[in-house]
Amino acid sequence: GAGVSQTPSNKVTEKGKYVELRCDPISGHTALYWYRQSLGQGPEFLIYFQGTGAADDSGLPNDRFFAVRPEGSVSTLKIQRTERGDSAVYLCASSQGLAGYNEQFFGPGTRLTVL
Amino acid sequence: AQSVTQPDIHITVSEGASLELRCNYSYGATPYLFWYVQSPGQGLQLLLKYFSGDTLVQGIKGFEAEFKRSQSSFNLRKPSVHWSDAAEYFCAGLSGGSNYKLTFGKGTLLTVNP
């Protein structure tokens, strides 16, 4: 079946602009995660959802970052007033539920470049 | 603080040679441990995982890893490397309980020489 998909694959924006990154999880997966991978680093946790609710948003770096999942499926990561330091690959993952033994399946990522 | 460390940033091996990628963890209790592979333009793919039980874990693509509590390590091994194994490898941990956040190491880039 289809895996996790993310759109756009690449996004170039100017400092100060607003961006939205979309994630389509695997059908039937109730848990959804966002990670950010900076150049030369491993992915870092941002937020995860169980259903429609954000179960843990402790990784969001500041209040410019916000994520929603209104119907418990597709999620959108929103970044306001982008800064050059926001440039990174944003990864989305989904799993069958919130449990440590449930594999997190990753999408290909959205590469965000802030000029 | 919970952490995962990959001491080697870049490793080069010849095709057909054996491979060992190092991973050390720091957790209060035994974590769930994972190895992922990331090829250019591809998403992270899970190679194998350890939760409990047998400390030698078999994964996909001929990889295995051994959990060693005394050394706080979870090293990835492959007896004979293929050119297609060239990629970046990430070790990750998850503390369990009600915490579902993966903590990743910085990754090890594997180059395979013909």
Structure description:
The complex is a heterodimer of chains A (115) and B (114). Chain A is mostly beta strands and 115 residues long. Chain A is built from no helices and eleven strands. With 114 residues, chain B is mostly beta strands. Chain B has strands at 3-5, 10-14, 19-21, 24-26, 32-38, 45-50, 56-58, 64-68, 73-78, 87-94, 103-104, 108-113.
Runs of chain A in which pLDDT lies below 50 for 5 or more consecutive residues are none
What is the strand tally of chain A?
Answer: 11
**How many whole angstroms does the radius of gyration of chain B measure?**
14 Å
Q: How far apart lie the N and C ends of chain A?
A: 37 Å
Low-pLDDT stretches of chain B: none
Short description:
Chain A is mainly β and 115 residues long. Helix content of chain A is 0%, strand content 48%.
Features:
heterodimer, A: 115 residues, mainly beta, seven-stranded mixed sheet, four-stranded antiparallel sheet, 48% strand, globular, B: 114 residues, six-stranded mixed sheet, 0% helix
